[in-house]
Design brief:
single chain; 303 residues; alpha+beta; Immunoglobulin-like; Glutaredoxin; 2 domains; five-stranded mixed beta sheet; 6 helices
């Protein structure tokens, strides 16, 4: 029953995004729901000039698809130009839903201009045809959250030294103490690459915080000798009360975050190299951590 309720919440959250796609702009073509409709949902709160991570969810008959064999074709159009019907570029999505309660199909588009864009999604059907839909996107000049290339904010986040009772630091039911050894401020000063996850495993609005933490714990096992890992619970203790009041820890405002979860990768100089909104998978994160640990620039797109 709990899992059914959680799945229903995920669907409701995704449906809210249909009307207000990336950056709060309305879709140019509202999805028409029929019994076999495949409804694409942009699951990103902002897009900016440069390389982006664009996750897309797909609803079918009111349920989220999580099909590893599904791939979407995306065609991008610049609506503020002289010829809004001219395709600017095309790309394919990559399945990024392993271990997540929802399927994510991720593309890594690079936008050269701010303004109004649209993405045309082609989703293959079981009968061999494709469902084509256009959604509007709003590309910003600059990110509202911390940007890649920006210095990480040296936030004073709770550690195990502040409170040895991890149940007062994190809502994770199976917390790993290694994620609470350093504050973000200490990680910035440590001259070592680090990963910081803003997540709330027990109160996550999209139910991906817990799976994200499992991915990060696995990555810590592989990269923990070279990279520091930090989890920041987005709600202060008592978590349930803070969740009800939507009261966040100070680091959320300091990092200009309005949603969760977010995962940031910073290099040894404390400079943000990559950021991920929403669900993550081991397959996507492992090559990024390899680059981060080696002191190389992190490339979001697969090589």
């Amino acid at each position: 029953m709990a899992m059914h309720r959680r799945t229903r919440i995920i669907v409701l959250v995704l449906l809210l995004v249909i009307g207000t796609t990336a950056c709060g702009e309305r879709a140019t073509l509202a999805p028409t729901l029929t019994s076999d409709s495949l409804v694409p949902i942009v699951a990103a709160s902002e897009l900016v000039i440069g390389q982006n991570r664009l996750p897309i969810g797909v609803l079918k008959n009111g349920a989220t698809l999580n099909d590893p064999d599904l791939a979407l074709t995306l065609r991008f159009f610049y609506l503020d130009g002289d010829n809004p019907d001219q395709m600017q570029f095309e790309t394919q999505t990559i399945y990024r839903g392993a271990g997540l309660p929802i399927g994510l199909y991720v593309a890594y588009p690079e936008f050269d201009r701010a303004g109004a864009w649209s993405v045309e999604t082609s989703i293959p059907r079981d009968d061999g045809t494709e469902q084509v839909q256009r959604l509007r996107l709003d590309v910003l000049e600059q990110s509202r959250t911390l940007s890649v290339g920006e210095a990480a904010i040296a936030s004073q986040t709770p550690t195990i030294r502040d409170n040895g009772d991890l149940t007062r630091i994190t809502s994770d039911s199976e917390p790993d103490p290694d994620f609470y050894q350093l504050s973000i401020a200490e990680a910035v000063a440590a001259n070592r690459p680090f990963v910081v996850a803003f997540a709330t495993p027990s109160f996550c609005q999209t139910a991906v915080c817990g799976p994200n933490m499992q991915v990060l714990k696995r990555l810590k096992t592989q990269f923990g000798e070279r990279v520091n890992f930090i989890h920041v619970e987005v709600y202060p203790y008592p978590f349930s009360e803070s969740f009800e009041q939507q009261r966040y820890v100070p680091a959320m405002a300091e990092w200009r975050l309005r949603t969760e979860p977010w995962t940031f990768l910073a290099d040894a100089e404390g400079v943000i190299q990559a950021k991920y909104e929403g669900g993550i998978t081991f397959a996507e994160m492992e090559p990024a951590l390899e680059q981060l640990a080696a002191g190389e620039p992190v490339n979001l797109a697969p090589r």
